[in-house]
Design a protein that fits this description.
This protein has 3 helices and 4 strands, in the order ββαββαα. With 110 residues, it is α+β, with helices and mostly antiparallel strands. It has a single domain (2-109), classed as 3-Layer(aba) Sandwich (Rossmann fold). Strands 2-1-3-4 form a 4-stranded antiparallel beta sheet, covered by helices on one side. The relative contact order is 0.17.
Amino acid sequence: MIKLKNLERCYPLAKEKFFYVLRDINLEVDEGDFVSVMGPSGAGKSTRLHILGMHDHGWIGEYFLGEAAVHHLKPKERAMLRAAVALIASYIPALRATRADPMIALSHNI
């Protein structure tokens, strides 16, 4: 199970000013669920995937992976847990001219 509670990711712009890429994100994915993340450029899709894959650590909020409270783990503990996470990302705009059939076949071969 994956659970995000009040997740936020921002980058500093200037003194006391921040650019929020993700703000107040809540998500729950149960075991066996299949999730697709779509949206326009700059919507925070990649940032969310980097957080879920434990490659980004500059966020606030709560992140649970199974029974593990990722937000409380030390870097070495996150690295060990990271081995259990598999994310598949594809760059769909490069495939817009194709039909869905090859994509479906491709997804079954992965």
